[in-house]
Amino acid sequence: MERWLGTIKTHVDPLKPNGKTPSLCGVDFKGSSLGLLKAKIEEAGRVLARNPADSITICIAETGQCRGAAAKREIRVIPKRLAFILLPGEVLNLEIISHQVSGLLLQVPTTILLRECELHGTEDPDLLSLQETIPGHETLILACTQQLLDLADKDEGPAKSRLIDPLEASILSLIASLVGTTKGSSAAGNASEPSQSAHVQAALAFMEDYLAGTITLADLCKACCISARTLQVSFQTVTNRSPLQFLQELRFIRFRDLLLQRMDVRSACKQVGLQPTGRMAANYKRLFGELPRETKPQKT
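The structure corresponding to this sequence follows.
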């Protein structure tokens, strides 16, 4: 976490004069195209920070109460919702009301994000438009970033290198797909139609709800009220994968989490909609570098 915080200039005051020393803990990830910090701060009264001159930072709140401003824009803290966006060089002034606050910070170099916007065909991208376009898409962002943080916490191995890069690319593509333009409305895309990321978010919610059962492409289309082609194009644009590829990856990641929690292979398969076959085990080994029965529970 220290390496992530090293990119910003931060000053923290205690919650009360002569009170307890503020504490900060969390998990972080620093990749080739973005950085993540899932952090919790306790006994702090005020946080002042300056965003790097070459990056944009997005914060999604999780717990606690606070108020303040990002540059001169008001911060509103609602759990699982966008709290603020900091453009390059902007200052965060946060007054913390509760004893504890937590949230996810996502940091992307502006050059990388602008290049990704070009790939999405966005002319004259307006990064501040994310303040209006991200709300409603937080669930998808949190799900993708949590997968990346979970993988980053694992031991080095073939699976780590195979999965991290595509996940990074998916998150970057998702953010870029929400960037609007400086021309006309700041909303990304046609305001009369749901955005591609909204289609993906609806499909992801359906996957999570029915992961233990059989899910077909037709099921996903029906849940999202769109055609198969529209859903496939949306997934390819936002995640760089097809809907069923994303579903299979989600199942294997959830399956591994259950194994690490000491659940037996057959029961874990049942919970995530996998069949305990030799082919499943081979696909698991291709992803994680070991067979399911070789996955060791996490040390406590």
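DSSP finds eleven helices and twelve strands in the chain.
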